[in-house]
Amino acid sequence: MWRSVSPYTFLAPFFTLFAAFGLFPLLYTAYVSLHRVELQTPGAMEWRGLGNYTALLTDEFFWRALRNTVVIGALSTVPQLLMALGLAHLLHYRLRGRTFFRTAMLLPYATSVAAATLVFAQLFGRDFGLVNQLLSVAGLGPVDWQDGTLASQAAVSSIVVWRWTGYNALIYLAGMQSIPAELYEAAEMDGASRWRQFAHVTLPGLRPTIVFTVVVSTIGATQLFGEPLLFEGSVSGGISHQYQTLGLYLYEQGWGFFHLGRAAAVAWLMFLLILLLVGANAVVARRRSRRDEAAAVAS
Question: Are 156 and 227 spatial neighbours (Cβ–Cβ below 8 Å)?
């Protein structure tokens, strides 16, 4: 009897903590999103049904925050993963000081998001920022990185790219080291160059790792909060909300306007958006895998 019960006993602490700090808040947030709840009187709930969701879908600032989240996510995720893949490919080969470079890759990830964002805010300063000084040396005019829409979104994205490129590079490096060396030896005997080895051996072997990093980066981009908040220090994301993400919009609704019910609705819409994006990535990856299997069988 103990042999059959003991595995559940060992797993009980995890499921207890998950139910208390994961499942219950998730379900309670869904319950709150169906009510009108104010921060001043959190105990007084007024049933609204889908009223909070209807109000969000008719709010132009919600759609602007959603658009900003998608744009900043694309500007940060695509360059980040491409650069991480290139750095991992370089570190995969024998390189002098590889241990130092691998350790240095993690330093941006270990840096506090507050410290990193404050430094980047100074770098992108309009009057005395280093980036504008470099642009002036190149003969270009200064850019107001905190006022322009695309400029501010690019500046916020650069912080994300700086912090997470090294982390993803080490994940790719670990995936590359799990690829059998015999595949590279066979490709080299066939006369394949390093580029062809990378395209036909490394990338197919890294496909599960690439899918994992895309999913994790997508989730992180959807929940982006610290970088845009500290870039200017405003929950509105600039004067015209030009880089306000869904995370900032949620914070503004809950702790700026004191509408906890509407903030809970934003949280659930973000949760559903993440499920949609992760599901889309899974479908694309599954179709690609089936296509490759069919091509392998045909050949």
Answer: yes
